[in-house]
Amino acid sequence: MQIIQMAFPQGKTKAFTVSYDDGVRQDERLLAAMRQYGIRGTFNLNYGTLGRVGHAVIDGHDTDVSTFREEELRTMYEGQEIACHALTHKKLTEISAGTAACEVIEDRRNLERVLGRLVTGFAYPFGAYDETVLQVLRSCGIRYARTVESTHAFRLPQEFLTWHPTCHHNDEKVTELLEAFCGEPVGRDGARLFYLWGHAYEFDQRDNWERAEQIFSYVSRYEAEIWFATNGEICDYTEAFRRLEFSADGGLAVNRTALDVWLLADGRAVCVPAKETVRLN
Ligand SMILES: [Zn+2]
Question: What's the gap in Å between 89 CA and the centre of ligand 1?
Fold first, then answer.
């Protein structure tokens, strides 16, 4: 029997995504760097704080926390994904389930109205979640949600509602992790994901914008092997892959979804097109 492993589009074996929170104006500089290197990702926004102008003390630093205006969203984040981050950035574990549901659904409803498309991603304000919050997200139609718990690993999540990132951009291990991710061939577990997260204002706080540039230019050199995608694209693709069906002898793969998926059959990249059956041997 052949060994079947997950691959990404075009048979690539690695994916890279980023996730940045709060919709602050520093996103503009980050987006420019992402565009330059072909990096893609997801920006988690609080609809209720759009158009804010001002500073706040965050982690002991005076920080410009001004945000984009509603009418700027479509153009500013062109080519990237916008997801929810609760209407007013409340810690969802410290409010009632009803108020939490309001925070999620009102953020989602308004962002969808502004963007004219579905918004089903989320990042937990302050990284806080519990069983009740997970239930709230499910009932609000949220399909994937990022935590702030670094794994220092390259696994795809089993449960997309607790999607743990690889690391924060200020993590002291970020360079080591990038080298391991890009340099090592994919092993027995198949497709790997590097998931970077943060807040764009943190580059201002530490005056380390060159770090964004270094990370993006480093991974972009491996574009032959890496799929650069938003959180939503990775979730959609992984769910489609996991829905593949195989014959008892492993010789046939059936894709009943609307997305083409790729796999490695004994290391050989095979596409199983949407709605088709493919012979693997
Ligand atoms: Zn936040």
Answer: 6
CA of 152 to the centre of ligand 1 (A): 21
Q: Domains of the chain (ranges plus CATH)?
A: 14-239 (3.20.20.370), 241-279 (no CATH)
Expressed in angstroms and rounded, the spacing between residue 57 Cα and the centre of ligand 1 is: 14
Q: 């050989």: which residue's tokens?
A: 268
How buried is residue 131: exposed, middle or buried, by Cβ count under 10 Å (0-12/13-18/19+)?
exposed
Instruction: Answer for the pair 160, 144: CB distance below 8 angstroms, yes or no.
Output: yes
Give the Å distances, CA to CA, from 122 to 73, 75, 139, 205, 260: 17, 21, 13, 25, 25
Q: How far is the CA of 67 from the centre of ligand 1 (A)?
A: 12
SS3 16: strand
The pair phi, psi for residue 264, each rounded to 5°, is -110, 120
Cα distance between residue 264 and residue 18, in whole Å: 25
Residue 98 C-alpha to ligand 1 middle, in angstroms? 20
- How far apart are the CA of 241 and the centre of ligand 1, in A? 31
**Per residue of the chain (281 residues), what is the pLDDT tens digit?**
789 999 999 999 999 999 999 999 999 999 999 999 999 999 999 999 999 999 999 888 899 999 999 999 999 999 999 999 999 999 999 999 999 999 999 999 999 999 999 999 999 999 999 999 999 999 999 999 999 999 999 999 999 999 999 999 999 999 999 999 999 887 777 899 999 999 999 999 999 999 999 999 999 999 999 999 999 999 999 999 999 999 999 999 999 999 999 999 999 999 999 999 999 98
